Amino acid sequence: MKMDVLLGLQWGDEGKGKIVDYLAPQYNVVARFQGGPNAGHTLEFDGIKHVLHQIPSGIFRSDIKNVVGNGVVLDAVIFKKEVEALKELGVDATKNLVISKKTQLILPSHRLLDAAYEKSKGEKKIGSTLKGIGPTYQDKIARLGLRVGDVLSDTFKTKYQKLRDKHLQTLEAYDFEGDLDQMEKDFFEAVDYLRQFELVESEYLVNQEINNGSKVLAEGAQGSLLDIDFGSYPFVTSSNTTTSGACSGLGVPPNKIGEVFGIFKAYCTRVGGGPFPTELFDADGEQMQNVGREFGATTGRARRCGWIDLPALKYAIMINGVTQLFMMKADVLNGFEKIKVCTHYKLENGEQTDIFPYEIVDQKIEPVYKELSGWNTSLENCSDYDSLPEELKQYVKFLENELHTPINIISVGPDRTETIMRNQILA
Ligand code: GDP
Ligand code: IMO
Ligand code: MG
């Protein structure tokens, strides 16, 4: 068996949570491989709307093993809250969730550092979720971080204090103060709570599952255009959100990767700062925001909206080795007579390109659009591909042609049931 990977191809919030939950019955294991509580993955079914930040989206299926991989950064306080919220819904995460001992811990002082760094950037701030993601990965790379396995050691508190004191020195240099007392109290309570979970060497577990014939799905967080290497740097997150991140974030070798499912919205959104060539500042953008309820699942911030961007999507498909595409939120475009597709960028020197250029951050890039007819009708009664309006099918075919990859799922609403499977996605 091989491990399939599901990830976002845009700037996050493509609908990964919904689709992982939808596909989960076809898998035995769902594993998160990077990111942390900056993620907000929304699941809707049976009248329940639930947002997961740290916990994989297979958690609602009791027969599925959920894994928090070594590539993740974990905020124990947020994790505890999440587990307790699930308990209220009758889901006992202690039964089907394991955490890698190698997962890095987010300390309260990492959150303060995140805030201090952002403040110091002024106008050029990233728009971080302020969950401490960047500083935690920074300490991981600097070989200073604390890992989940450390909570089992007698010296955990000493290690914690050493790192915290280092952070406090840095915060002084930034002339930044924050009250750590309550945060530390919550942190240590949450660390105690963590000890009731199975803390494992998840690379062994995941590889054994793969070798024993189990089906494993790796659930990405954020999106490819936020990848630390390939995104619109420095307006990115601090991890590899792409397929290679699934290998390093779970300890699965590249030759064990099977399908790569790339998820994208029928348009584009971005939350936080950074370039967004197709961003709209008009009534069309407002319509996408209102109809799509484009407000962040983690921070509640309004998401910026714009037309679909093919140079960016082609780039993400290339970097990830996407084998199948899933198009989300088609219903949000129901009210449009015309739909625009950005096929190329025009650079400042007049050159037209369909690559995602290095200059994206510093240059004013103008999108070149092709206009297609909208379907301008509700999709409420559409339950299979054939029943979709002709213009939507044309949109799908146009995208497939441009992207050289099949679009096998079309999502037409937030609920689990509002999902149109066009082709079988697993052999
Ligand atoms: P994720 O971070 O990729 O899991 O996505 P989020 O949960 O942050 O954001 C996606 C939002 O769109 C959530 O509110 C979902 O409930 C919602 N959603 C997902 N698929 C669809 C869809 O096909 N149509 C509509 N209208 N909403 C959707
Ligand atoms: P999901 O998994 C959308 C954005 C932030 C900010 C930048 C860096 O729900 O798709 P960070 O806190 O990581 O240092 O922020 O990345 N960002 C996301 N945007 N969806 C996410 O996750 C995001 N996680 C981070 O808004 O611009
Ligand atoms: Mg989200």
Q: Give, in spatial order, the strands making up the sheet with the most strands.
A: 9-7-5-2-10-1-11-15-19-20
Share of residues in helices: 25-40%
Distance between the termini: 11 Å
The kinds of small molecule bound in this structure are: guanosine-5'-diphosphate, 6-O-phosphoryl inosine monophosphate, magnesium ion
Question: What features would you highlight for this structure?
Answer:
427 residues, alpha/beta, ten-stranded mixed β-sheet, four-stranded mixed β-sheet, 31% helix, binds guanosine-5'-diphosphate, binds 6-O-phosphoryl inosine monophosphate, binds magnesium ion
List the helices and strands and how they pair.
Blueprint: E1 3-8, H1 16-23, E2 29-32, E3 41-45, E4 48-52, E5 65-68, E6 73-74, H2 76-88, H3 93-96, E7 97-100, E8 104-105, H4 108-121, H5 133-141, H6 156-173, H7 181-194, E9 198-200, H8 202-211, E10 216-219, H9 243-250, E11 257-265, E12 268-270, H10 283-291, E13 304-306, E14 308-309, H11 310-320, E15 324-328, E16 338-346, E17 352-353, E18 366-373, H12 390-403, E19 407-411, E20 419-421
Helix pairs in contact: 2-7, 4-5, 4-6
Bound molecules: guanosine-5'-diphosphate (GDP), 6-O-phosphoryl inosine monophosphate and magnesium ion.
Magnesium ion binds next to loops.
